[in-house]
Amino acid sequence: MTTTSTADLESTARLELLAEQDRDVRFRTFTHDDAIAVGEHIIALARERQQTISTAVWLGEQLAFQAALAGTSADNDGWMRRKAAVVRRFNKASLHITEEMTAYGIEDIARARMVDPMDYAFNGGGFPIRVGSAQVGVVVASGVNDYVEHDLVVESLRAHQKASA
How many CB atoms lie within 10 A of CB 28? Predict the structure, then answer.
């Protein structure tokens, strides 16, 4: 398991790590109970680290878990919805899409992808839930910064993956 922060890596290494995470963070099954456990783990880690976080876990289009710590607002809910839309549409972590586009020199990702920025947020913090290779849901965090949010989600998914094995 890689514990390096995505923020600490150069662009090429970051893209390699993001692709590795997408290949490795997969489940045999993922239920509502799993969604709640992952969401609760994110909140527990954020509290322990004194981070201001909102998080949500969707199974398909159903919101299975959502929680927000003090210091977040309804704006974070909007960010999470928009990051989840990126994951659903492009079938990758929101940070992965953002980093790929940045590596190509694209600054206005929404325009390049021909999507409305009011519906899609190209920021870190959204990650697909996969059963095998199929995307069955999305986990999102919002409230700190792109890299911290992404790392928190992946750390929680990996912890749940390990506990479920």
Answer: 9
| Distance, first Cα to last Cα, the chain | 15
Strand pairing category for 62-68 and 134-142: unpaired
pTM of the model: 0.92
Distances (CA, A) of 113 to 37, 89, 93, 100: 34, 11, 15, 12
How far apart CA 80 and CA 86 sit, in angstroms, is 10
DSSP the chain: -----GGGS-HHHHHHHHHHHHHH--BS---HHHHHHHHHHHHHHHHHTT---EEEEEETTEEEEEEE-BTB-HHHHHHHHHHHHHHHHHSS-HHHHHHHHHHTT-S-HHHHTT--TTT---SS-EEEEEETTEEEEEEEEESS-HHHHHHHHHHHHHHHHHHH-
Cα separation, 155 vs 162, in Å, equals 11
pLDDT digits (tens, 9 = 90+) for 130-152: 999 999 999 999 999 999 999 99
Nearest CA to 6 out of 151, 160, 153, 113 is that of 151
